[in-house]
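Subject: mismatched residue count in predicted assembly?

I count 1494 residues in my input, but I want to confirm that the predicted structure covers every chain. Input:
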Amino acid sequence: MKFALSVLFFGVFMVAAHSIQAAEPTVSEATSECLECHTIVHPGIVESWQKSRHAKITPKQGMSVEGLARKVSSKTVPDVLQDTVVGCAECHALRPDAHADTFDHNGHDIHVVVSPNDCAVCHSTEAGQYEKNIMSHAYTNLNANPLFGKLEARIPGRAKLTDGKIAFEPPGDATRAESCYYCHGTKLKVAGSEVRDTELAGEMEFPIIEGWPNQGVGRVNLDGSRGSCSACHTRHTFAIEMARKPHTCKECHVGPDVPAFKVYSASKHGNIFSAMNKSWDFNAVPWTIGQDFTAPTCATCHVSLLVNTDGDVISERTHQMNNRLPWRIFGLVYATPHPLSPDTTIIRNKDGQPLPASLDGEFASEYLIDEKEMNKRRQAMQAACLNCHGSSWVNGQWKRFENTIRETNSDILTATIMMKDIWEKGLADFTINPFDEAIEKKWTDVWQLYANTTRFASAMGGGGDYGVYAGGRYQLTQALLEINEWRTVREKLNGASK
Amino acid sequence: MKFALSVLFFGVFMVAAHSIQAAEPTVSEATSECLECHTIVHPGIVESWQKSRHAKITPKQGMSVEGLARKVSSKTVPDVLQDTVVGCAECHALRPDAHADTFDHNGHDIHVVVSPNDCAVCHSTEAGQYEKNIMSHAYTNLNANPLFGKLEARIPGRAKLTDGKIAFEPPGDATRAESCYYCHGTKLKVAGSEVRDTELAGEMEFPIIEGWPNQGVGRVNLDGSRGSCSACHTRHTFAIEMARKPHTCKECHVGPDVPAFKVYSASKHGNIFSAMNKSWDFNAVPWTIGQDFTAPTCATCHVSLLVNTDGDVISERTHQMNNRLPWRIFGLVYATPHPLSPDTTIIRNKDGQPLPASLDGEFASEYLIDEKEMNKRRQAMQAACLNCHGSSWVNGQWKRFENTIRETNSDILTATIMMKDIWEKGLADFTINPFDEAIEKKWTDVWQLYANTTRFASAMGGGGDYGVYAGGRYQLTQALLEINEWRTVREKLNGASK
Amino acid sequence: MKFALSVLFFGVFMVAAHSIQAAEPTVSEATSECLECHTIVHPGIVESWQKSRHAKITPKQGMSVEGLARKVSSKTVPDVLQDTVVGCAECHALRPDAHADTFDHNGHDIHVVVSPNDCAVCHSTEAGQYEKNIMSHAYTNLNANPLFGKLEARIPGRAKLTDGKIAFEPPGDATRAESCYYCHGTKLKVAGSEVRDTELAGEMEFPIIEGWPNQGVGRVNLDGSRGSCSACHTRHTFAIEMARKPHTCKECHVGPDVPAFKVYSASKHGNIFSAMNKSWDFNAVPWTIGQDFTAPTCATCHVSLLVNTDGDVISERTHQMNNRLPWRIFGLVYATPHPLSPDTTIIRNKDGQPLPASLDGEFASEYLIDEKEMNKRRQAMQAACLNCHGSSWVNGQWKRFENTIRETNSDILTATIMMKDIWEKGLADFTINPFDEAIEKKWTDVWQLYANTTRFASAMGGGGDYGVYAGGRYQLTQALLEINEWRTVREKLNGASK
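Triage response: the counts match. Full output below for your records.
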C-alpha cells in the first residue's frame, strides 16, 4: 500500500502548506476571552466568524498587499490592531468612548452595535464613500421629510374608524422598525440598562437599546454615524461573495416600488447568473470581466472594482453607489436627475415642497446634478457594458431607457392633472394628507409602483414582463383609466345626490 | 506508466472499499421482480430510488446506529424487512390487508398509495408526531367546516350567471383536486378497477382511485391514515437534503395567503441561504448550527434536530411542526394562539361559528393553547435563534412580532366592523354566503392576504417589502379605505335611486 | 518527493490527453484578425466565446459524431468552414450578400446581426423546425393583427387626456422595443450608416440599425429570416446547459399573463430542480431521464432529445416546441387547440375577427389542429411523463388539465356575456377599441391574466397557490363579481342621473 501512504503524506503536506500561507492566525488575548464563553453561548456567530477573512488575516498582512487586490484601504491602522486577526474585541471594543452603548462586560468596555466608523479604522475609503451614498441618509431622508411622514402614516400607520371615516395616526416604533425603517434603518438610542440572568455568568448588566435590532442602510448609530455595513456585508462572515450576489440587494429591492431583483432575475443578465454562477469566482479582487464572471450582478454595475483581462481598470470601486447613475428612477413623484447631496431633506421644489420635482413635473434643478455630471455618470456605467456589447447596442439601450423616463413621467403628469382636478373640486382633500384616501392611493400606485417597475425593467435591458403585465405598463395605464372613471362617477354621483 | 497503474488500482480499491462500507446492498427477491419490469417501464422512478438511502441501507443497519444520528426511530422492525434494502416491494406490498387499493399484480399483493402508516413501520416516532400536526388534518379541517365550504364555493367554485346575478356552486372533484386540495390533500377512494394494456405484460387489471394523483399534506389514504410523507420527502429519493431546502415548503407556502417562501427568500436568512448554501451539509444528522449551515432554512426552525458545536441538543426533531409556534399567524379570521387539537372542526367561537375567534376578535380560548404552552413553544423556537443572536436581539424581534399580531388583528376588526354595518344595512348578504360578493372578497383580502403577508414578514425578522409594498401594509390599509368608500357610495347611491 | 513529481507528471499527461481529444483548436485567419482588436475592446465577448463549444470543436469534428450525440444536424457544411473552430468571422462574415447590414470592416464583409439562417448552415434541422414554431412569427402575429394592435395601444400606448377623457395612441418604436416586442422580437431595418470614433482604429463607419438591440424570439432579421437563436442560446457561449435551465424561459414567461416559470418553480418538478440540479448533467446529449436529471425542466418537456436508461428515444428533439402541445392555454380570448400554421394572422373566427375562437367561445376549427393531431401531441408529451409516473397518475393529471381548460373557458364566457351587455347598453364602446376603458381592462384581466395563470398551474401538475390565491381562481371569480357589480351600479347611476 505504498500509494495509500503517499496519499496520507500528501494530505499532511497540504495542511502544512496551507498553514504557512495563512501564517498562523493570532487571536488577541481580549478576543480569546470573548471566545471562551461565546463559543458556548453563541456558537453560530463564532462559526460564521471563523469562516471569515477577518479570522484568518491580520491588518498588517492585509496592508502588505499592494495594488488593486488590497482590501484594507486605510493607510494607517493603529499598531495595537496590526498583529492579531480581526476578532470579537477588535470591533466590539473599538473606540469605546465614541459609543453610547459601551458597557462593562467582564472587565472590558464593549459596545453592542458596531458602526461604519468602527469599520472605517481599516476601511476608511469605503466608509468615506458610503457617507456620500444617499442610502446612508435613508433614515433622516424619510423621517425628517414632512410629506413622506404623511405617506408613512397612511401605509404602516394606525387606522382608526371614527364617525364612519378612517383616519391614520403615525405608526408606533415597533411597527416602524419592521416596515419602512427595516430597510431605511432605525435611530438607535440607549434607554437605560437591565440585568439579565446569563447561562454562564449569572446576573449581568446590559444596555437597553431602542430601535434594536436593525441593520438598515441608514441606521443612526450610537456613535452618531450613519448606516450599517452588515446590511450588505452580512455578519459575521462579511463575505465579499455574499455582497456580490444579487440576493443581498433583494433584501430591500424586491417589492413593486423598487423591484430591482425581480427584474434582474428575469433579465438576460440574471438568466446567465442563475444558470452559470456556480463556476464564477466571487472572491477575486479586482474582479475580472469575462474571466471571473460572465454577466453582471447588482454589485458589478453599481459597486465593484472591475478590470478587463489585460488588468486595466474599467470601473473604480465605489460605495457611494450612485456615481454610475445619472437618473434616480425611483420616482418622488417623478424620476429626476440624482440629488446633489445625500441629504435630501434640504430639497425644495418651486412650490416649496420637499420633493425633487414639482407636482407638475418641473425638476428642482438647483438641488440635482447637472447635465455634465449626468454624462460623466452615464459614461462610468457604460464603461462596463462596453466590455460585452458594441456601442450601437449600448447606445440603443440607453436611448430606450431615457425614452421610458420621459414617458413614465408624462403618465405621472396625466395622473396628477386628474388628481389636481379631484382635489380642487373637493372630491378629495390635499391639504391634510394627499395620500390618505382610496383615490389618492391609486395615484401613488401610478408613480410609486407601476412607473417605477416600468423604469427598472427598462434600466436593466428590457425586462420583458415587468415592463408590461407584471406591474408595469398594463397596470399603469389601467390606473389612469380608473382614476378618470372615479372622477367622472363621483362628479355624477355628487350631482345626483344634491 | 507506473503512476497511471496506481491510479487504476486505487480506483478499483475505492470501489471495493465503498462496497464493504455499504455492506453489499441486498435487494429482496420481491423487489428484484418489480425491478425486472419497472426498470424498463419506469426508469426514472428506479433511478431516483437508486440514489436514495433506502436503496443502500437495510433497516438492520439503520437500527444499529446509536444516538442522535439514528434515522430509524422504530424500536422494532419486522424481521422479514431487516436484512434487505427498502425497495419497491418493501413499501408497496407492506400491510396489504390495510389498503383498499391492494390488488393482485403478477402474484403480489400491491398497493399504489403508500401511506404514513406504511412509513411508520420504520419511522414510528415521526409518523406519530405527524398525526398531531394540524397539516395531517388539512383535508378534513377544510372539507368539514361549513363556513370554509362557502369560501371554497366562491373561489374555485362554479360561477353561474342567472338573472343578472352571479351565484356559485361548489367546485367539482377535478377542480378541487388541483386548487385547495392540491396542498390540503384529497380523499382517496377506490371506485372499481380497470383493465389496461401494458407494454410488457399485455392486459392487466388496476384499481381506479378517485382523488389520485395527490400528495397533499392531509390526504386521506386508503388505509384510513392521513397525510403523505412524499409531500416533503419527495419520491423516490426521499432525500433529507430536499426536505431541508426551502423549495419543498414553497410548493404550498408561496401565495399571498401564506407567502412564507417569498418572505424568507427576501430575508437576511434567505439571502445567506441563497448565496452560501452550496457549501452547506444538508445530509448531516444531527444538524450542527454554524458548522453544517450558517443560516436557517424552513426545516431548521420548524422541524429539524439541531445541535450546537458541542453536540448539545438545541431543538428536538419534530414532525408536529407547530410545537415551536405559539401563534397561528394564518388568520381565520384573526391570528390566534394555536389550536389545542389538530382537528379544528370541533372549534366553536362564542357565537357558535367554527372559527378560532369570533368575528369581533375574541379568541375561542378553550379550544386554543394557553399562555403556559405558548411560552413553552416560544422558548423552543428561540433556543435556535440564540445560537447566532443575543438575547436583546431575539427579545426585540419577538416584541415586534407580537405587536404586529395585535395591530393586524386590530385592522381586521376595523374591516369587520364596516362589513357588519354593510351586512346589517342589507348592502350585502351575510347569511347565505359571507364571501360571495365583490365587497366581501375585499374583506377576505384584508385578513387572508394582506394581514397574513404582513405577519409572515414580521415573523421572519422584518421582511422589508413584504411588510409594506409587496402585499403588506400598503395594500392592507388601502383595502380598509376602499371598503369604507364602497359603503359610503353605496348608501348614497341607494338613497339617490329611491 | 517522488510522489509530488508523479502528480506533476500526471498533470502534464492529462493536459496532453485533453489536447489530443480536442485536436488543437484551429482558429481561422479571419477570426484571428477579429480577435486581435476585439480581445481588447470586447474582452467579455471573447471570454464567453472561449468557454463555448464553438471555440473548441470544428464542424468537421462535430460531423464525425454519429447517432444521437450529434449536434451538427446539417449533412453538408461548406468546406471552407469545416476545419476551423466556429469563431467571430465564421458567423459574422457568413452569407454577406444575404444581410442588409453587411459593411466593410477592416477589409472584411461583416454583419452585426447573426440570424437563424446563418446558424442553419450547421444546424439546419433545428432552424427548419424553428420556422414552424409559432414563436418565430411572434413579431408579425402581434404586429399585423389589427385587434391586438388595439390592445397594444391600450397597454404600452401613449395615454392622452383630452376633454376629460383618456385616449390612447400607438406606442413609439423605443417603447415598443422594450415592452411587447422585447420578447416578441423587433423588426430590424438598416437606416443608414454613421461614423464613430473607435478606441483602436480611429474613425470607422457602421450601419445604423433600427430595432437594435433585440433578441426576441420572432425578430425579423436583416436577411428576412425570423427569430433569434440567442434568445435561448445566449451569446457567446451558446451553452446547452443554459438553454436547458428554466431561467432562460423565465426571461419571457414569468408575468401573470404567462407565469410558466413561477408555476414551475413552485411545482414538485421545480422543487426537485431547485434542490438537486447541482448534481445533474446539463450537457449530455442525448439527455438520459433519471441519470442525467431527476426532474424535468422546461426544455425536457418542450424541446430536448430524451432517452431512457436503455438508450431508447423517448422524445425526439424539437425546436417547433408545440408538437408536444395539443392545447394553446394562453387564451386569445379562449384556450383553443393549437393553430395549424405558425402564421396566426390568417385566422378568422366565425364572426370574421382575427382570433382562434369567437367571443362566445366557438373555436375557429379550420385554422386549428384536429383531434387526431391533438392526440398525437398529447401522447408525445406523456411519453416523457410515463418514465417517472404510472398511467393512472398521468391520465388523472391530464383529465384535470382538460377540466380546467373547460372551466376557465366557461368563466371567460360568463365575463364576455356581461361585457356584451355592457357594450350593447352603451356603457362602454366596443367598436373603436374593446380594450381601452377601465371595465374592459377588467375583462382582459379575466382571460389574459387569471385564466392563463390557472391553466398554467394546472398544466404543470397542480400548481398549488397559483391555481388559487396567487393570481388564479381567487382573482378570477372576483373579477367576475366586480364586472357584474360595475354593470349594476352603472345602470343604476345612469338611471339616477337622467
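Chain C touches chain B through 70 residues (CB under 8 Å). Marking this ticket as 'not a bug'.
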